[in-house]
């Protein structure tokens, strides 16, 4: 079957998407910042390459020849890792979106599925969750705003890319079973959880048979 390029394949979500893609028979190009840190990703049908998603020309070069792209990039995998990074690059997600929106069409790749952040969904009062310090730690709000800036870039994209942002709830379950089912919601934070495995199912379903276009939605059990 056709190839998929996965940016951020070294994280838990990226690994889950890679595993689901391989189980469905896809060839995968797994893009990570440092391949030496992820020797276990390489397997039959998985080609691991070094890359920075914020580099538009490199993104185009890596993506060429693939039918779709998935972006699960993040500067850090959790609050502790974010704290260890030091000052946050507020432009990280906007720069990543810009590079993808520039590089993928030049590579002939039109379908892009991006994983969003739950804190940018709307809470009970109709405001973003990241605006409520009782629901989301105030010291992590800059990270959420950086993520939101990436979404804003996607929303202003031209017709050259058919993007979708799938946004899971907080507390993705790394050990949860693959049930093979999920629900798609709107802009509001869902009350139920999700496993990484079923997030990957949703991603691959939308890669293989796109039904949602140029929008952000929630995905949950």
SSE blueprint and pairings:
Blueprint: E1 3-7, H1 12-23, E2 27-32, E3 46-50, H2 56-63, E4 68-71, H3 79-85, H4 92-106, E5 111-115, H5 141-155, E6 162-167, E7 183-184, H6 196-208, E8 215-220
Please provide the count of β strands: 8
Helix count?
6
Largest beta-sheet characterization: 8 strands, mixed
Instruction: Give helix % range.
Output: 25-40%
Q: Order of strands side by side in the largest beta sheet?
A: 3-2-1-4-5-6-8-7
Tell me, briefly, the overall form. globular
* Overall residue-averaged pLDDT value: 93
Q: What radius of gyration results from the CA coordinates?
A: 16 Å
Taken as a percent bin, the fraction of beta residues is 15-25%
Low-confidence stretches: none
Order of helices and strands: EHEEHEHHEHEEHE
Q: Find the structural class using helix and strand composition.
A: alpha/beta
Report, as a whole number of angstroms, the end-to-end distance: 28 Å
Question: Concise description?
Answer:
The protein is of the alpha/beta class and 221 residues long. It has helices spanning 12-23, 56-63, 79-85, 92-106, 141-155, 196-208; strands spanning 3-7, 27-32, 46-50, 68-71, 111-115, 162-167, 183-184, 215-220.
Please explain how this structure is put together:
By secondary structure, this protein is α/β, with parallel strands linked by helices. Strand 5, helix 5 and strand 6 form a beta-alpha-beta unit. Helix 2 crosses helix 4 and helix 4 runs parallel beside helix 5. The longest helix is centred in the middle third of the chain and has 15 residues. It contains six helices and eight strands; from the N terminus they run βαββαβααβαββαβ.
């Amino acid at each position: 079957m056709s190839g998929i390029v996965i940016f951020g394949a070294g994280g838990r979500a990226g690994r889950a998407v890679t595993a689901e893609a391989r189980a469905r028979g896809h060839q995968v190009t797994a893009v990570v910042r440092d391949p030496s840190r992820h020797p276990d990703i390489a397997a039959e049908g998985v080609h691991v390459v070094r890359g920075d998603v914020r580099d538009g020309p490199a993104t185009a070069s890596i993506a060429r020849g693939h039918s779709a792209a998935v972006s699960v990039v993040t500067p850090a995998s959790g609050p502790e890792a974010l704290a260890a990074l030091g000052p946050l690059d507020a432009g990280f997600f906007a720069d990543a979106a810009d590079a993808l929106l520039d590089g993928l069409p030049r590579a002939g790749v039109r379908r892009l599925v991006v994983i969003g952040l739950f804190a940018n969904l709307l809470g009970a009062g109709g405001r973003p969750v990241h605006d409520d310090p009782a629901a989301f730690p105030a010291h992590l709000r800059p990270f959420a705003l950086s993520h939101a800036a990436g979404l804003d870039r996607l929303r202003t994209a031209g017709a050259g890319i058919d993007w979708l942002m799938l946004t899971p709830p907080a507390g993705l379950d790394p050990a949860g079973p693959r049930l093979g089912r999920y629900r798609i919601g709107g802009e509001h934070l869902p009350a139920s959880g999700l496993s990484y495995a079923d997030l990957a199912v949703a991603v691959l379903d939308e890669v293989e048979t796109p039904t949602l276009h140029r929008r952000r939605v929630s995905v949950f059990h």
